[in-house]
Known about the structure:
Shape: globular
Number of strands: 8
Helix content: 10-25%
Largest sheet: 8 strands, antiparallel, barrel
Number of helices: 2
Strand content: 35-45%
Amino acid sequence: MKTNNMLRPLFIITLFISITACKSQTSNSKVSNRFRHNWDNTYTLHTESGETLNGFDVFYDYTLIIHTDSATFSLIGIQAGFRDKCFLSEKDDTLLGNFAYDLDGYETSHDQFHPLFKIFKKDNAYYIISPIIAPMDSNKIWHLKTSLPPGTTTTQKNQ
């Protein structure tokens, strides 16, 4: 009888560790399978307005870094710039990014109810539609450059 009393705490501890380990593996797999497609990548776009300002060509460089379930969307250009954190969602084969907050703490006029960008893949290339990039033509499609070739995962790149 004394042996059973000694084994009982050991059994309870082992059971607790097993349940906890299984639960953490399940929750981790849900995070990695949140989207149908792996969007993790760094996407870039360079645009020029065709104008000059004080002798400099007016340009805009956009960078979109997507990792797991959020993104950083930034712009560097002449007299323009932002660095925003975005929430991500997927609709069909398109990734949508909605404004969450400005990483630099600035007040912004970005629309929180409509996506700041939509990304989709076609013919092994990525494209973006964004009212931030083309305010006068919010349906214009732009070709993105990527740091990883389509279909490559971050773990494949590091091997």
